[in-house]
Amino acid sequence: MQSFDSDGVRIAYLDEGEGEPILLIHGFASNVAANWIDPQWVRTLTQAGRRVIALDNRGHGESDKLYEPERYGAPEMAEDARRLLDHLGIERADVLGYSMGARIAAFLVFAHPERVRSVIFGGLGIHMVRGMVGSGPLAKALEAPRLEDVTNDTARSFRIFAEQTKSDLKALAACMRGPREKVPRGKLGEIAVPVLVAVGSEDVIGGSGAALAELIPSAQFLEITGRDHMKAVGDSKFKQGVLDFLTSRP
């Protein structure tokens, strides 16, 4: 992992392979290793002839940990991604975001459509506009002294995942208490680049992928059958669908 300065925040990133660039943006409580390396995404994409750039979002992985909630808005995290493209001298890239990373990718394409060749919203369906799991219970779960103190099942699953990824729980709680900018339905309808929405058929956290795709004129929908929010990440159908999408797009 390398790092660069994103307006005063040190952001760690990976840059591997050669060919057309694709930027990967991971989900909440995850990191480059857990979201993209371990599930074989980096290997799959580099073997397909792509240059893979992936960043640890602020507060995650090897990037700086911030404890002020106001510094975690999705639009600002999208600027970290844009600054990384600037740092690497990349004018345009395909973008793949998963879960929180999909929200960040949406704000990136809203603010800088000229930098995004195509976008893949993974692990996040209609809850992109409706809002995901309540931030309060998740933040409390991360702040709880012990896992045993967490009774909300969904919040507990995120606490377990955060511990598995050896995350800074205090930084993640700040992230969850930060600005929760909703993605406007109308803005989705204005996206002009090719879009793929890929969500597990059992993903109750991300919500219906088909419903989200209906809001985006340029969107294709890929259902990752039999997979929930956590298990869809490394699914072979997901990977093949992304490769097919990247190959077929103009």
Task: Write up what this structure looks like.
The protein has helices at 32-37, 41-47, 74-88, 100-111, 127-130, 135-143, 153-164, 169-176, 185-188, 209-213, 236-248, and strands spanning 2-6, 9-16, 20-25, 50-55, 93-98, 116-122, 195-200, 219-224. The chain is α/β, with parallel strands linked by helices and 250 residues long. An 8-stranded mixed beta sheet has the order 1-2-4-3-5-6-7-8, sandwiched between helices. Helix 6 (135-143) packs across helix 7 (153-164). The protein is globular. The relative contact order is 0.15. The model has no long low-confidence stretch (mean pLDDT 94).
Which tags fit this structure?
250 residues, alpha/beta, eight-stranded mixed beta sheet, 38% helix
Give helix and strand order, one letter per element, not per position: EEEHHEHEHEHHHHHEHEH
Strand order of the largest sheet: 1-2-4-3-5-6-7-8
Number of helices: 11
Q: What radius of gyration results from the CA coordinates?
A: 17 Å
Q: Give the class from helix and strand content and strand pairing.
A: alpha/beta
Categorize the overall geometry. globular
Q: What is the end-to-end distance? A: 31 Å
Unreliable segments of 5+ consecutive residues: none
Estimate what percentage of residues fall within beta strands. Answer: 15-25%
Tally of strands: 8
Task: Return the average pLDDT rounded to an integer.
Answer: 94
- In helices, the fraction of residues equals 25-40%
Question: Sheet with the most strands?
Answer: 8 strands, mixed
